[in-house]
Structures are given as structure tokens and as C-alpha cells.
Amino acid sequence: MIKKLVSHLGEYKRAAILTPLFSALEAIMDVLLPTIMAFIIDQGIEKGDMNAIIKYGLLTFLVAALALLLGVLAGKFAAEASTGLAGNLRDAMYENIQHYSFSNIDKYSTAGLVTRMTTDVTNVQNAFQMIERMCVRAPVHLVFALIMASAISGSLTMVFVVAILFLVAVLASIMIPTFGIFDRVFKNYDNLNASVQENISAIRVVKSFVREHFENEKYTNACESLYKQFVRAESRLSFNNPAMLVSVYGCNLALSWFGAHYVLNGSITTGQLNALFGYIMNILMALMMLSMAFVMISMSAASARRIVEVLDETTDLPAPKAPVSTVADGGIEFDHVTFKYKHGSGQPVLNDITFTIKPGETLGIIGGTGSAKSSLVQLIPRLYDPETGSVKVGGVDVRDYNLDVLRREVSMVLQKNVLFSGTILDNLRWGDESASEEECIRVAKLACADEFIERFPDKYNTWIEQGGSNVSGGQKQRLTIARALLRKPKVLILDDSTSAVDTATDAKIRKAFREEIPGTTKIIIAQRISSVQDADRILVLDNGQINGLGTHEELLKSNTIYQEVYNSQTQGSGDFDKQGGEQ
Amino acid sequence: MAQAKEVRGPGPRGAGQPRPKVENPGLLLKRIMGEVFQHYLPHCIIVLICIVVSALANVQASLFLKSLIDDYIVPMTQQAAPDFGPLTAALIRVGCIYAVGVLAAWLNARIMVNVTQGTLRNLRTQLFTHMESLPIKYFDQHPHGDIMSVYTNDVDTLRQMLSQSIPQLVSSAITIVSVFASMVMMSWQLTVVTMCMVALMLFCSKKITSMSGKYFIAQQRDLGKVNGYIEEMMEGQKVVKVFTHEQKTLAGFRELNDKLKDSAKQANAYANIIMPVTAQLGNISYAVCALAGAAMAVGGIGGTTLGTVMAFLALNKSFNMPISQVSMQANSIIMALAGAERIFKLMDEPSETDEGYVTLVNAKYDKDDNLVETSDRTGIWAWKHPHHDGTTTYHKLEGDITFTGVDFGYVPEKTVLHDINLYGRPGQKIAFVGSTGAGKTTITNLINRFYDISDGKIRYDGINISKIKKDDLRRSLGIVLQETHLFTGTVMENIRYGRLEATDEECIAAARLANADGFIKRLPDGYNTMLTNDGANLSQGQRQLLAIARAAVADPPVLILDEATSSIDTRTEALVQRGMDGLMYGRTSFVIAHRLSTVRNADCIAVLEQGRIIERGSHDELIAKKGKYYQLYTGNLAEN
After folding, report:
1. B12 touches chain A (CB under 8 A)
2. Which residues contact A575 (CB under 8 A, 6 or more apart)?
3. What CATH number is attached to the domain comprising B96?
4. I need a labelling partner for B562 at 20 to 30 A (CA). Which of A100, A366, B88, B277 fits?
5. Is a pLDDT exceeding 60 seen at residue B565?
């Protein structure tokens, strides 16, 4: 996993190598300082040699200045490496997501992908920076300080070794079991916040049922139990700092006692003893830093895992070896198609579907929720692959086409559709980047969008907010239809795309289709019978199977489901205020 | 769950980041500490003592070095047979001080866990309880993500502040003061030298911070843009695929990402520099002191001894560390205060007011056929109306609702409902029709007093609804909202939400009435199936059926139904329709109607346009009138 992440360093590899290098050098300078100080005391002060004092004093300056320079460089390169890695990771994720198929996208929610590309990347960036700056520096600090100390006195250095072992043992025994506990506690914390979220969005329900007290009590109890869990987990951590102090103080005492003996028998000087005291903090701080880095790494491990998941995901629509790059015509053929959303497992959504559509034909599709209408049409532009059987467009299996070519010729208006922030023209030009303004206006007229666009003060330059939040549902649908028309496709698929458009406008759009793009194969999914009744043929889907296929009149005579739907709608259940909304 | 998370840039908290603007930080801090002290004053006093003790023990560690060399080792070097007795005694004494210091440090950490977590628990429950009391208006005006962020981000930064920043600040301050005092006592000359270096240190870190602050703001801006772009494009990723726009959006993303990479690099670089600069200036300060001290010791100025210099150097080191900590902690405290400001702002929002005094009680008829109050659930409800003269009258709850000349606006400047007059007789069904934004939902929100009217009167069984206690008013109304919200819990619990004391049998009966029983039985665990994430595992239609069952179990005399406009398929819709019809039977119902079938059998249809009732009457009457309703009903004919 780490290897995978590090491989995205790219041009920042140099910075990533230089950072620990400079940090390590800085650490060595840091460790040299107490020894030089010892020289000041031993050879300068004790002997009253002013020259030595000045000599070693200047050396101290020099070393500190060098350490400063190294530290600044390390900091700079650490920033470069970590933010560079973060940028590259975002880039790589974004690029890989562009290769995702629909089923890959379904696997991650939108919010999930956004979190992975933002919060998770930030976590990894911070952890990486920490690792870069600490993970080499701290051990170097530790080892070099030990070496320097043992150069002064090997046996006194044993004091440090004992202290280090003590601290490592204590910290490990505190931290390691605590991780699991915190994991659970934070999960409960998330649940608590989820219940707040729930209360905010459902506040009208809470208030209409007068459940404020009920919710308060529930929440207070949850808070209380969370409090207990947090206290239990954190009180373990309260031993960390005292353990550190025990080590420092223990070293102080031991060094004082043994140091006094060593000074007396002349094996070390007072200056050297002072240097050893200086190393206590050096060594134990390095150890503390390491444990902090360890905590950060383990905290960001989950983020790293989530990032790698996105990077490792490969499209489940394999590219053909010799892709076909032209679509002959808009004829469509389903041959014993079975489809599942999860490959190899679960219930088939579509079961043994076989039918053909002639080029230029208009096919209506009708069926209840869950009858797999959308699934059926999504196989045509190869948004998903069938489990068994084949789908052919223009006489060629969709799996043999170059995907871009296929999708250019099979234009689909999705049920859950989206406009992007930009002008209306920008949005229309998603269909064809090079389309002239006249061309855009022409398709807008076909989709009956021109009438409302012209009423906007900025007309075709009207700014559409993110997700198209400033146009009504019906307007949005008409814009997305226009956008799809601009592609001049051989096959046009409308997946319940006029549900928010009033019936009169709906009829006008269909009339335009008939007259203006007669050669295009049109597939129209709808809830309303009126939207499909003038189609050449109508397909009735039920539970992933074809229940009927024929003209409106034929189905009205022979198909019970069709009759049922027809009757319920003509008895008056049209969406009847919608028309008003569109005016 | 789209949360508008507070965008926080990468980088260590508090280091080099710009300080947010906080008005009156002193007052905020006082208020937070007030919250803490209210429950944890004794704890805090003990913690303070512990901090002082452990800080003093720490200073003792440095001071001991002076006496170690000067008072013990140096004298012993002059003895022929060194006497370790005094050293042993001193070490034992110091050892005891250390032990106390360690104990104090542990006690401090341990108690602070309770103080911090306890305060957070209290704040959370206060926040939540207060939030539940806020008027609907508050939730209309504040993005839900922002409210959520108070619970997550702001409470989190407060935790950071309580558990780390403040104790560290206090301990740093104590260390600084005691070390400073020791330094002055030891050698004022060296103290001056040290202070000069400290000033230099503070100056440098301030300079760097202001540089990095500039870049952090830029980073924040770029991060916001990248987040926005990702959110929009991921939402539309399927459209991107359908239009084979992958390369184009990637190019757009790269442009923004490169900008962010650049500003993040600058911001982090400056933030990273602060630590080495202060640390090395600290070392230089150490060297300067050593030089000056050595010179003084050699020259014998001010009685400076070797031991003094050594001890002073140790003090110098323990002085520099808390100084750089103070500026870092101060930064993160300011940040936490910005969060605290948002927490208190929510807590200070005025609660929903309620001057109502008429209450809803269970009632029965006594032998004289008078309505009297009873504690049993009789199925008969009465309004208990206390009067000024001390008498109390009881009024049977029947479900008669009238609007007279009602005006309303969400904001005073803009009236959205004009002169609404309406009569809903007990058991009648009133349908509202009209285009989106005509004010249908608004009218129903006035009946349960989600909003208060600006003019006119709404009477419920002849009582002005502003006199009725809100809780009782709402208890008498059953509401099925257009947007269904379910809670985490089982299906049964969700139905029981309508009436908490309902038995399982009553809940199942309600589900049957609402036509929900069929699909519930087919769920994996039937009525015990867990619903999570607002019932995401159910279809739109099923969630609506559950909402109807939930209203049904409450068994209210008056119903407000907002029919869903979302496209559920015809067969499920028929189920929902039958469920609603079953629920409405025998109750006064206000229905925001989208289906002709609902409208047709209504007793009265009110056609709304731009906040006014423009037509009113039964279906046949309105058709005969050939007005707006006729146009709407005949639909497509109207346009041709």
C-alpha cells in the first residue's frame, strides 16, 4: 500500500529524498551542540582559557546556523514533497475515476469519492510530511545522541538504554490496546453525529409528532454512554506523560549518582557530565516524536487504504482488441440478454431479453419501478455489460466498438440527470464542443427549451448553478434533451426524461423528433402512457422480462399490465399541477 | 449526506495558520470556562495545583544541577576520602520531589479526561436540546451542513483546546514565570542576554507566521475550488461518461489542482520553517549564554561560578521551549474560540415561543352528559380552556378549522399568502391545488404553527390557535410530509414514532390501514428490519407508506397530507393512494394534491395562485365554472 502511494511522488521524488537527508543532518548538528558546549566548559571555563571559549563559542554559532539552514531546507522540501504527493494522488484518482464504468461508480457513492479525494488525501499529506520530517530525523537523533553519549562514557550510556527500553515498553503497552478501543469509540461517535444529522433533516417530523423530549432523552443517553467510553479510553493515555517524566527524572537521578562517582575517579569531566544531562532530553524527545509519528501513521492508514482502493479499481468493461470505429446504423438487437448488477452473484435484473429495433424506429418502454427499464437501455451505450447474451448496435456487438465512438452515436438522457455550472450554451455544448450558437438554438427549439430560455434576461448566456439548481425540473429535462440532440446521434435514448414536462410540451417534443430526426432510432422510457402511445412499438417490461411488445392498440387489446396502467391513468392521476409549474 | 464541512487546510494545527477573527475572545473564553467550572470547579482547582506542582518539580530538575556540581561534586573533589552521604541525602530528597511531580502529572492528565469529556458531553446535550427547541425558521435559514459542522468540527476544536491548549498554556506560563524568577536570582546579566534572544525568536516567528498566513488563505481558497469541482463532477460523473467528456473534465481538474498544489506548498513550507528557526535560535541563545557566562565566570563578574553557568544553561533551555509553545497554543486557542463562538451562537438562538395555555386532555362524558377530564385514554379528546376569571371550560376536539383573512410572509417584507379564508368542517377533505410556489405547503405549515401568521386568525374548534399550547396543537394533527424522513431503528420503532405507547398490535394495525403491511412482511426481518440512513434500503413508495402508517398510529382527528410528486410507478402509487384514503376516512384532512383522483372526491378544492385562493368549490362546481381549475384539469387542452 505504501509502495503504491509512494510511486505517485513523480517529480517530487527529489524533494522526498532530500527532506529526510537534511533532517538527519540537522539532527546530527543538534546532537553535536551539547558536546561542543562541554568543550566550552572543560577547556574554556575550567582552564580560564578565553581563546578556547571564543573558539568553541563560534563553533556553536556555526553549528546552530548550519542546523538552522538544514532545518529550513528540510521544511521546505518536506512541504514540496508532501503537497506534491497530495496533488499527484488527487490527479491520479481523478484520472482513474474517468476510466470507471458505471458499475465502478455505483460501488462508491459520490460523497464517498469526494471524501477520498479531499479529506483522505489531506490526511495522507499530513502523515507523509510527518514521516518525512520525523521518521529519519528521530532515529538518527536517537542513535547519534547515544553514540555521542557513549563516546563520553560507555557505561553511563547504559542509563539511557534502560530508560529507552522502559519508555518503549510502557508506551507500547499503553498505546497498542488503546487503538482498538478508540476505533470502537469513534465509530460510536460517528453514530452519535449521524443521529444529529437525522434530527436536523427530519426536524419537521420531530416537531409535528412533538418528539423533542423523546429525542433529547435518546441523545442525552447516547452522549452519556459515549462519555463513559471516551473516559475509559483516554484515561489509559493519561499514563503517557508521567511515563515520560519517570524516564527523564530517573535518568537525572542515575546520572547524578553515577556521574558523581565518575567525575571523582576522573573518568569524565564536569563539562562532560553536563553534556550527558543535555542528551537526556534529546533522546527522550526523539522517542516521543517517534511515538507521535506512529500514532499519525496508524490514524492515516485508513485514509491511505481508501485512496489505494480508488487507484486500484479497474474498469470492468474490457476494451476490444480491434475496436470498430464506425457505427453503421441505428439498428439495435438484444439477443438472449441476461444482466446482473453484481457479476456472477445475485438475482438477474434482466432475464433472457430478445428483441430488435429497426433504424429510425421509435420504441416506447413502459413498466413498474424495478422492472429494469433503465438497466435495459443502459446496455445499449455499454454503460454496463450483460452477463450473458449480446447487445448489437448497427449489427456489431457493443463490446467490439471503441467506447467513445459508440457513445457518440448512442446518445442517452439519463433519468437522474445533471447540469453543470456554466452558461446554457456551455451546457448544451457538452453534446458537441464545436457547435455554433445557431446549432445550439436549433436543438433547444426541438427540445422545446427555446421558449423558456428566451424568457431569461441573459437568454442563452444565462448562468446555470451547480447541478442546475436554478432551473425547474421540467426546464432541466428539456435542456438535457437538447444537449443529447446536439450530438446528432444515430440512437437517442430518453430515460423518463419528460416526467416533469407537461403533456402538451411532451407531445411537441415527440412531434419534433418525428419530423426533424426521422432517421434516428428513438427509445423512450416513460411512466405516462401518453408519452409512448404514438411510438412505433411499445415494450412492456415486468420484473426484468418482456411482458409484451406491440403497438398501443395491440397492447391495449392483449396486455393486462398495459391495460391496467392505461386505465389508472385515464381515470385521472396525471401530474396535474406540474403544468402550472412550468409556466 | 452532503455535509458542508468546514474546509480546513492541511498542516499542523496552530502552526503558521492565519488566526480567524473572533469578536470579544475574552468574553467567549470566560463563558467556556464558566461551562467548565459550573460542574468541574473542584476538579479544575486540583488540576491547577497539579500543574503548579509538576512545573515546580520540573524547574527543580534544572536547579538541582547547579547544586549537584557546585555543592556536592566540587566539594567532594577536594576531599581525600569523598563522603557520599550528603549527595545520597540530596538525591533522595530530589527523588521524592520528582515522584510528587510525576504523580501530579498523572493526576492532572487523568482528571482532565473527565473534565474535558464531561464538559463536551454537557455542551453536546445542551446544544442538542436547544436545537430541538428552535423554530422551523432556523432550519430554513441555516444550511444543515453548517449546523452539523457545529457538532463535529467546532466541538472537536473545543476538545483540543480544553484537553491540550489550555492546560499546556497554564503549565507553560507557570514554567516561564518560575524559570524566569530562578534565572533572575541566578544572574540578572545572563537573564538580559536570554530575554534579548527570546525577543528575537518571537519577532522571527511572527514574521514567518504572517507570511505563511497569507499563503494559508490562498490554500484555503484553492482547496475550496478543488472541492467544489470534485463535488460537481463526481455528482455528474455518469453524464461525463455518457458524453465522453472524461479528458475535458480532467484538464479542468488539473488546472485547479496545480494551483492548490502550489499554494499548499508555499503555506506548508513557511509553517515548517517556524520550528527549526525557533529551535535553532534557542540553541544560539544557549551558545550566547554559554559564551557570556563563561566570560563572566573567567572574569569572576557578579560571583558567577561554573555551576551557575551550567544551571543557567539548563534553565535557558527550559525557558525557550515553553515560549515557542505559548505562541503555538495561543493560536490554536483563538481557533477554538472561533468554533466556540459558533457553538454559543446556536445556543443563543431564541427558542420557539409558546404563549398557548389551552391544552389537550383525555375526556369523557359524565352522567349529566358534561365533558370532564380523565386520565384514561378514552378516544375522546377535549380542549381544556382556562379563563381569566379562574373557571375552566372543556371543548370537545372535533377538527373544525377556519382561516379568516390570514396573511403570511416568511420575512416581514414579503407577504406570500394574502387574505386566506378557509373552512374545514369535521370529517371534511380540503384539497389545495395550484402551481409550485403558489403557497400550498405554506398554508399547511400555518395550521401546526411551524410559522406564525402576520395577520388574520386561524381557529381550531373555535379557539384561536395562538392560544393553544404548541405541543398539544401538534399532537392533535397528523402530518405526512412530501419528503419522507425515517429514523435509524426498526420498522416497528419508526411506526411507533407516531405514538410512543402504541403496542406492536396497534402498530401493525396502522401499517395495515396504510397498506404498508404487505411490503413490510416481505422485508428480511419483517417489522424488525433495521432502517438506516433515512431508510435508504427502501424504495420511495415504501418510505411513503411507512410515513402514512406512522401518522395512522397517532390516530389524530385532523390530517395534513402533502402528496408526493416524485415519480413512483403507477401501481405503487395506487397503493399509496389507498393508504392515504384509508387514513383520511372520517378525519378532517388538508391535502396538497397532485393527483386528480385525490382532488375529485374532496369536499372542497381551493385553487391557489401566487398566494391567493382564486377559486374554491367542489370538483363539479369548479368544472362548471370553466376557470383556472378547469384549465388545469383539462391539462393539455389549455395550451392549444
Report:
1. yes
2. A499, B565, B594, B595
3. 1.20.1560.10
4. A366
5. no
